[in-house]
Structures are given as C-alpha cells and as structure tokens.
Specification:
Oligomer: single chain
Bound molecules: calcium ion
Structural class: alpha/beta
Number of helices: 6
CATH topology of the largest domain: Rossmann fold
Number of domains: 2
Length: about 180
C-alpha cells in the first residue's frame, strides 16, 4: 500500500518508515498535522494514513476531522498514548478514524491492522462500483459490461454469473 505516516517523534517516524518499507509498502512521512493534510490532499495516491494523536500543530483527531469534512474516505489508523487511552480512542473514532492502536505497540499488530483496513477499503470500493479484472469491467449500477472498453451484451443470468465471478477472483465457486 501507499502509506502516509504522521508522527512528530523523528525516531519513531523513521522506524515506522523503515519497517513498513521492509514489508513493501511505499511510505511517506509527515511530522505535523498541516503537512499531513497537504500530502493527503495532493492527489498523492495515499491509500491509508497512520496518524499520531499528539502532534505539534493540530491534534491527530483534528486532522481526521478535517479530512472527513472534506469528503475524504482515506482509511485512518490512529496512534494514541497509553495514558489517555479511553478518551483519545473515543475522540479518535468520533473524528473519523477507522481504527486505533495504543503506544507502545508491537509492529506485527500495526501490520495486521493495516491489512484489515486494506480489506475493508477494498470491500467498500466494491459497493455499487465497477468490478474489474484484466480487460473486463462490469458496472453494477448501469448494468454494463465492457471488454477492452467495447460493450458486450449479456443476458441477465450471464451478467449475474460474471458479477459473482468478478467478486471472487481466483476462487473456485460452487455451481449454485
Ligand atoms: Ca507525537
């Protein structure tokens, strides 16, 4: 994934960039809330944000709130300090974070939660959207199928069958 880490502690920031990079993520680092908002908005292709609550300019909760107010659906994993857990957790989720992690955390847990966010985002993108696989695109709302951009006529049963297969790429499905 293309990730944005927002962390003002330079040591932790560098560590996260290195460890996430080792897992083949593309990682950018922002050290303040304003920088994070700038990067996240620049059409940068960021797919998820790891957002520390304690930042020098804006709290992480405010960064999340502003992103959501602007219509962003970027998955956000909030990092909270251990001493303010309950409060920060609730405020973070209220502000639009998708998940949170309490510092200090095991890197494996961060990694697992990112995978969960990624899965959720993928599932959401399917809702009423265009399913694609190679040259095939199926628009569920307009009920159109194209192959290499050329429209293909399908019967309703064929359409449903293709829709089912595209929703489960690489899987063997029962006849039913
Ligand atoms: Ca911090």
């Amino acid at each position: 994934m293309h990730l944005l880490v927002v962390e003002d502690d330079p040591r932790l920031g560098r560590l996260l960039v290195r460890m996430l990079g080792d897992e083949r993520h593309v990682v950018e680092l922002a050290a303040s809330g304003h920088e994070a908002l700038e990067i996240a908005e620049a059409g940068s292709g960021i797919e998820a944000m790891i957002l520390d609550i304690g930042l020098p300019d804006l709290p992480g909760t405010e960064v999340a709130r502003r992103l959501r107010a602007r219509g962003s659906r970027l998955p956000i994993l909030m990092l909270t300090a251990r001493d303010a857990v309950e409060d920060d957790r609730v405020r973070g989720l209220d502000a639009g974070a998708d998940d949170y992690l309490v510092k200090p955390f095991a890197f494996q847990e961060l990694s697992a939660r990112l995978r969960a966010l990624d899965r959720r985002a993928t599932n959401q993108a399917w809702e009423g959207a265009v399913l694609r696989n190679g040259p095939i695109a199926l628009d569920e709302v307009r009920r159109l199928v194209t192959v290499d951009e050329a429209q293909v006529e399908l019967s309703p049963r064929e359409f449903s069958l293709l829709e089912c297969l595209l929703r489960h790429p690489g899987q063997v499905l029962s006849r039913d």
